[in-house]
Design goal:
The protein has 201 residues and is mainly alpha-helical. Helix content is 70%, strand content 4%. The N and C termini lie far apart (112 Å). About 3% of the residues have low confidence.
Length: 201
């Protein structure tokens, strides 16, 4: 004998309604991370900066910072100006990346998203609702990791260029000193220090 239980049927209908509602739009307005990533790419790529999005980064780095291979017969000042602009603009790009991500509006939007996720989690009814809330939290976590990766890339980029510039300037100084000594028309008095020979001051 089949027994009709209206309470069980009502509960089943309610669960189905929840499932249909949750299969439709979630109504959650998360961050537009793609827009933010494009903006961050743009602020990293300013003027003479060396940045990790450049397709020809390796040859450009070697061209801008030739180190000991620097040709001392070329004009000095335009090169120094380019080296300075490259280093400073790369640092500026890294600073702009941090500025863009930590703007007051950006933080306020992130707080709104987190509040919306917390509310959705607390108001979750049924397994599907709980699962969707968890998925949205996971999506937000992935987006935060992407932003963190972008900031780490900008930081490593800036540190690498700064270190390259420092090494490069030291090597250019060595090259200039070498060429001056080698091409001098008058003998230069030198003193030996270990394995190196330096001009006498």
């Amino acid at each position: 004998m089949i027994v009709f239980d209206p309470t069980a049927v009502t509960k089943l209908v309610y669960e189905i309604e929840l499932m249909v509602r949750n299969l439709q739009t979630t109504g959650w307005a998360g961050e537009d991370v793609e827009r933010l990533m494009r903006t961050l790419d743009e602020v990293s790529a300013i003027e003479h900066a060396l940045h990790y999005q450049l397709p020809n980064l390796d040859p450009l780095m070697q061209e801008r910072y030739p180190g000991y291979q620097y040709d001392t017969s070329t004009a000095w000042w335009p090169n120094v100006e380019q080296w300075s602009y490259t280093g400073l603009n790369t640092m500026r790009g890294a600073l702009d990346t941090v500025h863009e991500q930590l703007r007051i509006e950006q933080r306020a939007h992130e707080e709104q998203v987190l509040a919306a996720l917390a509310a959705k989690t607390e108001a979750a009814v049924g397994n599907l609702d709980v699962t969707q809330a968890g998925n949205l939290i996971n999506l937000q976590t992935v987006q935060e990791v992407r932003k963190l990766r972008q900031m780490m890339g900008a930081l490593i980029n800036a540190q690498t260029v700064a270190q390259a510039q420092q090494i490069h300037m030291h090597m250019v100084g060595e090259r200039v000193q070498h060429d001056l000594m080698e091409n001098s028309v008058a003998p230069i008095p030198t003193v030996a220090e270990g394995d190196a020979i330096h001009p006498v001051d």
